[in-house]
């Protein structure tokens, strides 16, 4: 039975606008309770700025590694199918899975970095009072805007269709049976 292939590409500029919106929304959703609970005093040192910058850079790399790890778990050829790079035109790092995987697995892989690097640290900050965790969590939620966007445009697809990352554009191919 022949397969139909449909290209689904996200608009990187819309994803950037979404990132800004997510930052504002989650800064308020997590920041307001954080402030009410902890009443933080803002004091920055060169050491804290250096630690923050280092954690941010590490987080960007880990974000892509999380994608790769999850996609590799579900890819038929495993981690041999995973490639990493940067779309220099947009200054956007990426993880590319070179073979199709089921949409339900693609969604897990797409959203896992937002969960691990964003929602978990932001939530933990409410319990431990770490302003740095709060800020990093909100930043990494908003950094997942492209991931949320691709999941959004795939939302009406059957969870059992196969999806493959586009090799050179931000998006994917959806494979359906005719």
Description:
With 178 residues, this protein is of the alpha+beta class. The chain has helices at 12-38, 46-74, 103-128, 131-142, 145-153; strands at residues 3-9, 82-87, 92-97, 101-102, 162-165, 171-177. It has a four-stranded antiparallel β-sheet. It starts with a strand and ends with a strand.
Strand order of the largest sheet: 1-6-5-4
Number of helices: 5
Helix content range? 55-70%
Average predicted local confidence, pLDDT: 94
Largest sheet: 4 strands, antiparallel
Beta-strand residue fraction = 15-25%
Q: What layout of secondary structure does this protein have?
A:
Layout: E1 3-9, H1 12-38, H2 46-74, E2 82-87, E3 92-97, E4 101-102, H3 103-128, H4 131-142, H5 145-153, E5 162-165, E6 171-177
Helix pairs in contact: 1-3, 1-4, 2-3, 3-4, 3-5
Question: Would you summarize the structure shown here?
Answer:
The protein has helices spanning 12-38, 46-74, 103-128, 131-142, 145-153; strands at residues 3-9, 82-87, 92-97, 101-102, 162-165, 171-177. The chain is an alpha+beta fold and 178 residues long. 29% of the residues are buried.
Features:
alpha+beta; two-stranded antiparallel sheet; 18% strand; 178 residues
